[in-house]
Structures are given as structure tokens and as C-alpha cells.
């Protein structure tokens, strides 16, 4: 079955209801056994115009295409940010809390850039609002299943987060070679798990997640 490209139908519904800004939100790295979880956010408005050609959910794009799109998306969105929570925080606080923590950090970055976060609607991929529970003041968060596939703001956020996190994992692979992070990006591939058994666990690993692989 062919996959349709994302569009701005949902965003325009928010504009029509009086919202000036939509913040697309998506996470990357939730299921990895090494590295941070990252949350990307992309602020769009009706004035942004047409989105870059070829935009899709990051999972549907090659690494080369994501890297080509990322600077175009930075120019297209009003503001973009990626927040992260590291492996130690995931072990200590749990993945759901860390999604919210990474999202909070992305929002803080947007705010420091001048984004009007408080009056925006945040369009979050999925069916669970993991963001508001970690915020001191609740925001207007709307969840939508497959928003990363269907909505341009969320697809943009997914690409920003994926490129940012992948770049970190590639850089870390040069610092701690042998785990294949430049290829597996911290996910539990056979190569990665074999390397853990041979080389041991690093501070970059989510230690609590590795129990099931022991």
C-alpha cells in the first residue's frame, strides 16, 4: 500500500479555530538501548507557506534524504528545537518521564528563541500526552495517532530530532568504537548486543534496559 505524503490539513484546522502557531512534536530513540531519547519540536504558522518537497516521517526517509531535508526544514519553520534526556536519566526516571523531560527542554529552547509557546497548540504524535505531566504549567497539547505520517509539523519535528540524535550517535561511535552506533544508532541490533557481551556496558547504555538481553 502506497504511503501518502503529510499535509497541513490538521494545522489549518487549528489556524481556522484561532491558533496562530502549531508546534509539531515527535520523539526519536524511545526503544534504543544506548544513547538519549530525543524530542523534536517544529513551530509552524500559516505564513510559513509550502513545506519542503519530499517531507515525510523520518522513519520513511533514508539517512541521506533526512540530512538533505534538515537545513530546508530549519529555514521553513519559524523555530525548531530538539531536547534530550540521557541514558542515565532514562535508567533513573523511566522512559515516559524522560520523554516529557526531553520535550520540556525542547520547549525551553523554543522559548529562548522567541517562540510564543504558551499560546500555541502542540500537536503530539501518538495517543498519550507524556508532556504536560512534567510541566509546571499545562499547555494545549493535542495527541494524534500517526501524526508523524500525516501532519507536516510533526513530520518536520521527527526529521529534526532524528538527524540531531543520529549525528550524536555517529560522533559517539568514534569515541567508543566497537558497538556499531554509526549504523545501529544505539538500537539493539545483533551486532550491538554481541559487542556489549564482548566489550561490556558503557555509561552511554541504558543499563536497566539490558537486563532482558543478558
TrEMBL record:
<dbReference type="InterPro" id="IPR001352">
    <property type="entry name" value="RNase_HII/HIII"/>
</dbReference>
<keyword id="KW-0479">Metal-binding</keyword>
<keyword id="KW-0464">Manganese</keyword>
<keyword id="KW-0255">Endonuclease</keyword>
<keyword id="KW-0963">Cytoplasm</keyword>
<dbReference type="Pfam" id="PF01351">
    <property type="entry name" value="RNase_HII"/>
</dbReference>
<dbReference type="GO" id="GO:0043137">
    <property type="term" value="P:DNA replication, removal of RNA primer"/>
</dbReference>
<dbReference type="GO" id="GO:0032299">
    <property type="term" value="C:ribonuclease H2 complex"/>
</dbReference>
<dbReference type="GO" id="GO:0004523">
    <property type="term" value="F:RNA-DNA hybrid ribonuclease activity"/>
</dbReference>
<dbReference type="InterPro" id="IPR036397">
    <property type="entry name" value="RNaseH_sf"/>
</dbReference>
<dbReference type="GO" id="GO:0003723">
    <property type="term" value="F:RNA binding"/>
</dbReference>
<protein>
    <recommendedName>
        <fullName>Ribonuclease</fullName>
        <ecNumber>3.1.26.4</ecNumber>
    </recommendedName>
</protein>
<dbReference type="GO" id="GO:0006298">
    <property type="term" value="P:mismatch repair"/>
</dbReference>
<dbReference type="InterPro" id="IPR012337">
    <property type="entry name" value="RNaseH-like_sf"/>
</dbReference>
<comment type="similarity">
    <text>Belongs to the RNase HII family.</text>
</comment>
<feature type="binding site">
    <location>
        <position position="125"/>
    </location>
    <ligand>
        <name>a divalent metal cation</name>
    </ligand>
</feature>
<feature type="binding site">
    <location>
        <position position="26"/>
    </location>
    <ligand>
        <name>a divalent metal cation</name>
    </ligand>
</feature>
<comment type="function">
    <text>Endonuclease that specifically degrades the RNA of RNA-DNA hybrids.</text>
</comment>
<feature type="binding site">
    <location>
        <position position="27"/>
    </location>
    <ligand>
        <name>a divalent metal cation</name>
    </ligand>
</feature>
<dbReference type="GO" id="GO:0046872">
    <property type="term" value="F:metal ion binding"/>
</dbReference>
<feature type="domain" description="RNase H type-2">
    <location>
        <begin position="20"/>
        <end position="214"/>
    </location>
</feature>
<keyword id="KW-0540">Nuclease</keyword>
<keyword id="KW-0378">Hydrolase</keyword>
<dbReference type="InterPro" id="IPR022898">
    <property type="entry name" value="RNase_HII"/>
</dbReference>
<dbReference type="InterPro" id="IPR024567">
    <property type="entry name" value="RNase_HII/HIII_dom"/>
</dbReference>
<dbReference type="GO" id="GO:0005737">
    <property type="term" value="C:cytoplasm"/>
</dbReference>
Amino acid at each position: 500500500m502506497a504511503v501518502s505524503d503529510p499535509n497541513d490539513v490538521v494545522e489549518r484546522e487549528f489556524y481556522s479555530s484561532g491558533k496562530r502557531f502549531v508546534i509539531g512534536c515527535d520523539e526519536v530513540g524511545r526503544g534504543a538501548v544506548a544513547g538519549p531519547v530525543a524530542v523534536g519540536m517544529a513551530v509552524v504558522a500559516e505564513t510559513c507557506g509550502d513545506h519542503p518537497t519530499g517531507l515525510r516521517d523520518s522513519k520513511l526517509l533514508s539517512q541521506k534524504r533526512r540530512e538533505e531535508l534538515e537545513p530546508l526544514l530549519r529555514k521553513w519553520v519559524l523555530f525548531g528545537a530538539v531536547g534530550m534526556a540521557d541514558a542515565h536519566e532514562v535508567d533513573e526516571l523511566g522512559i515516559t518521564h524522560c520523554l516529557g523531560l526531553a520535550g520540556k527542554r525542547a520547549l525551553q529552547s523554543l522559548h529562548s528563541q522567541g517562540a510564543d509557546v504558551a499560546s500555541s497548540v502542540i500537536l503530539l504524535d501518538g495517543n498519550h500526552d507524556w508532556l504536560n505531566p512534567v510541566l509546571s504549567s499545562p499547555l494545549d497539547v493535542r495527541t494524534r495517532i500517526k501524526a508523524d505520517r500525516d501532519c507536516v509539523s510533526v513530520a518536520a519535528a521527527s526529521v529534526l530530532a532524528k538527524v540531531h540524535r543520529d549525528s550524536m550517535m555517529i560522533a559517539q561511535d568514534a569515541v567508543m568504537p566497537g558497538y556499531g552506533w554509526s549504523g545501529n544508532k544505539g538500537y539493539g541490533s545483533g551486532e550491538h548486543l554481541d559487542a556489549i557481551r564482548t566489550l561490556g556496558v558503557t555509561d552511554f547504555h541504558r543499563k536497566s534496559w539490558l537486563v532482558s538481553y543478558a
